Amino acid sequence: MITIDKKATYKAGDFVFKNYINMTEAESRQILEWRNDPSVRKNMYNTGIIPWENHQAFIESLKERTDRFYWQVSNGDVVCGSVNLVDVNHETGRAELGYFMAPDQLGGGKGFYFIFSLLELAFDVLNFESLYGATNVENRSATLLDEYFGFKKTGEKTLVIDGKPTLFAEHILTKEDFQQDKSEKLDVERLLLFLRKNKKANKTV
Fold first, then answer.
1. Would you give the DSSP letter of residue 43?
2. N or C: at which end does the chain have fewer Cβ atoms within 10 angstroms?
């Protein structure tokens, strides 16, 4: 049985997770600015710009909901992105994972540690059994990290976004698969070897 305290600030590794409903207005505006940045929203299901009023109303709705949770993610004094778990099934411990990083945090290997911390939060702290999601296949950095951390591809789906068909890879990760060789997954040399074997990568993750 999954229990999530909306008022709690969670920690996984060096990363801290603050629920959206506990953010200050300045923090909320920062998250919205990042989410609306073209480099971030281009990989989302909804690529449109979200107005501040809609963002406020959404955060207010999260106070009553038990099927979706959103957190601001920080590492030390640096706020570096956002993570969400939606369609949460408290009985089975299953949810859909979503996230984005601040535009100025992209590249330089930061995404590697960022995503690892999200998985630690879900599996080691909140005790979820499985996470699923879908990644835009053109977002090669994200698809490579999904594969590296143990996500298994379950299919593909095409969504019409901005009037164009966009292909997404569907995948799932279980707690068992994540925890298998978990410490080795943090080995940067192992990651680099994996990336070298996947030469189709088009940017540093």
1. T
2. N
